[in-house]
Predict the 3D structure of the following.
Amino acid sequence: MLECEACRGQYEPDQNIQLCECGEPLRLEYFHGDIKEGKRDVWSRYSEFFPFEVDEKLNLGEGNTPLLKAPSISKKLDANLYLKNETVNPTWSFKDRGTVLSLHRALNLGIKNLGTVSTGNMAASVSAYGKRNEIQTIVLVPSNISNKKVEQISTYDPILIKVTGDYGDLYYESLKIGKNEIYFTNSNSPFRIEGYKSIAFEIYEEKFPDYVMIPTSSGGLFRGLTKGFKELKRSGIIDEIPTLISVQAEGCSPVCEAYQSNEKEIKRWSEPDTVARAISNPYPPGGNDVLRKLEEHGGICEKVPDKDILKAQNEIAREGIFCQPSSAVGIAALKNLRRKDKIEEGVDVVSIITGAGIKGEIVLDDERAIFHCGLEDLETCLTRFF
Ligand SMILES: [Zn+2]
């Protein structure tokens, strides 16, 4: 059953619908079950929590990502920090977990074209899964998208269209136009949310934390993690869900703005301006639902300025992971919250590192020294360092 958490509207699962009549994004019913020990593949291990069996032929090996200790940042913050490294997914972001379930959904509905509206990560993901499985993909991107992002996306050979006009409205327009010809799997597609739940299950199995830091733009990742933890609780596997912290960039923070002002609905952000471009949706379709969930679970919404984001990106690189600026917001927020003592010392924290730095956003702000040397002088060159 597809359900709306705003008005409680319900729709049959075979209906090709993603938004409720009230305008809010739908989600599937809550599932409960057991984790199947001994199965490594993420879709088999947690199969009782998914709406259908996932055909492994359609997969690219997504999920099962490492949860890496971050000793250097942990020491500075007097907290035990773990980085959930989603950069190692097949197209280098967590989006792959949602794309594979969306692809199944499209095929189950008998729709032969897969589409998405994206600033980069989801576009690359949808194009890759479509190409591998010989399904036509249609990717709508904002007209000001950087060439580096276009390079990654176009490698997978989708129909790539730069669209001028309001990017926030493009989300809703694509769903209307796609109908039964193109299945648009945008950020808050109910089946995308199902895929993102798997991150919560994996975290639970490795290190159940006190806090989870979640970069938030359209709201899909936050909604997916919440649903995953709630399902573990409903299944009697955990007693309480960890405190979920939604993190936004100061230059585009409609959810934090509304939450901190006790508003029930988000307002459109007039001019997004941040280096964290992958999380700069000015009117997030899942924003109101994130607000409801923050309220329900006593969550925290924290916004961080660009200078803190770039600093955190450097610190994460020193732990061995080159991530997008958008992925660094969790660490920037954690530092603020520890400084303000809103998070106690000694706690266990997981931060989701959503996508790889190599994808082409602005990267690493401090200067790195690079040395030059001829082969014949190499030994002499190296003596300078030892
Ligand atoms: Zn509704």
